Amino acid sequence: MPSVIIDNIEAVPGLIQRLYTISERHLLDGILSSIDNSVMRTKRQLITIYKLVALISENLLCRQTVKRPPIKIQGQRRAFSITSPLNQELRPPTEKDEELSVDALGRPTKKTNLYTAINQAMDIALATDPKALLFGEDVAFGGVFRCSTGLREKHGADRVFNTPLCEQGIAGFAIGVAAQGHTAIAEIQFADYIFPAFDQIVNEAAKYRYRSGNQFDVGGLTFRAPYGAVGHGGLYHSQSPEAYFCHTPGLKVVVPRSPVQAKGLLLASIRDPNPVIFLEPKWLYRSSIEEVPIEDYEIPLGEAEVIRNGEHVTIVGWGAQLLVLEQAIQMAEEKLGITCELIDMKTLLPLDIDTVVKSVKKTGKLLISHEAPKTGGLAGEIACAVQERAFLHLEAPIKRVTGYDTPFPLVFERFYFPDALKNYEAIKELIEY
């Protein structure tokens, strides 16, 4: 997120108007991320920043306008409730938002967005495990996406703390404390920044148990990283690196699609006896809202989920791409009169191919979609595994709808993104084959 440092309060109105055109929802985070006690500020700068925050907060809460109508999804079963972060109506919280409900299992729930669900999971992990540590760049004051807000104050500066701006160092430290018996929750500020830590993760964390003959391990190790498109992210804040790590035995790779999934999967990841890469779809941080159980719960790793039943096409995705696929399925139902079976992989390493194969044997057609580039992407691995086990059941070539084999562009982001229309066209081609 952009840091905003200005000395002239007269520039504030123009700055507010300019930043509105970028992203209302992330505006305050960008400004607050500049208030880092590890960086020296003059008294005048700090006063100006706080005045700016106050002005923006007041303006945002009073406007209550939207540029376009929120996205609505209708179908047999909704994967999650969401509106686009650039379209979402901004309003102060109401008493209704604080009301508790009860889910199908009788658990008390509360309306929660995805980043708050992540916060709750880490809060529970720190509260239930005295050896748990949370650290990363800017984590102490909440992080750029506010996922760790309030945890330092609640659990102490010796358990929730900042690190230097060095991903290799973060990973090395995480491996070290995990090897000594601690539960390490390491945040990589953006998944795009994880590559300097690649050697530590792939050659150390993933192989620690194997090379010691199971005498030592770093099982209590989780790397959290926001991934994927967010709008205006450009080359270095939009990448989806899951395929790199899915080629690494010894790791687990997990991607949630919603707040309920995020909380349960993160707690399961933190407590798993293997190092886990937990990729969080940053587009959904504030825009995906669900009734999330308040209590401690886990969602098993390694199990895909059929979130929508259908008869004609099997569609596979994960993370934020599930929203796009829901929209494409709705278009296909309305225009083609068909039903599609939608599967959320949730855990990408290990892959639950059994669930996909079972569905393909019923539908005869398969579409796989992800944001990452096509070549070397996980869609190719899933497609190969399915044709090895269900070739005689396939009624059409397997389709992949992915990002292009280029860096993630800024100006042409909308053209790069594997949106609902591209996925609908692929569904149509499968049906007409």
From TrEMBL:
CC cofactor: thiamine diphosphate
Organism from which the protein derives: Planoprotostelium fungivorum
Protein name: 3-methyl-2-oxobutanoate dehydrogenase (2-methylpropanoyl-transferring)
UniProtKB keywords: Oxidoreductase
Listed InterPro entries: THDP-binding, Transketo_C/PFOR_II, Transketolase-like_Pyr-bd, Transketolase_C
CDD domains membership: TPP_PYR_E1-PDHc-beta_like
Annotated GO MF terms: branched-chain 2-oxo acid dehydrogenase activity
Residue span(s) of domain Transketolase-like pyrimidine-binding: 112-287
First-tier enzyme category under EC: oxidoreductase
Segments traversing the membrane: none
Catalytic activity: N(6)-[(R)-lipoyl]-L-lysyl-[protein] + 3-methyl-2-oxobutanoate + H(+) = N(6)-[(R)-S(8)-2-methylpropanoyldihydrolipoyl]-L-lysyl-[protein] + CO2
Gene3D superfamilies reported for this sequence: 3.40.50.920, 3.40.50.970
GO biological process, one term: response to nutrient
The enzyme's E.C. designation: 1.2.4.4
